[in-house]
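Homework help board

Subject: predicted structure for assignment chain

Our instructor gave us this sequence and asked us to write out the predicted structure in token form, then describe one feature. I got the tokens but I'm not sure how to describe them. Can anyone check?
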Amino acid sequence: MFLGKVIGSVWATQKEAGMENLKLMVVQPVDWRGREGGQTVIAADRIGAGIGEQVIVSRGTPARILFSNNSVPIDAVIVGIVDSYEVPGAAEGED
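My token output:
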């Protein structure tokens, strides 16, 4: 799993079977300080995340297992919307 920030939406009127009515979001991975890190991903969103929100994204087989049809062509899914988090012992200026 990784932290990310929702930066956009994807609209696709034609989708593979099992993806009907599935909202797709563009997510920018971020580090715990909120700095961009890594390539953007398109993630399925069943929980209602919005643009600008920080989210938790699961990838690979764990993402696909969330769907009853394991053959759905999904490799990333938003599994949580972050309210807050704490990194104990992290000092300012420390990476």
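Reply (TA_rk): Your tokens look well-formed. For the description, you could write something like this. The beta strands are 2-10, 23-29, 41-45, 54-59, 76-81. That's the kind of observation they're looking for.
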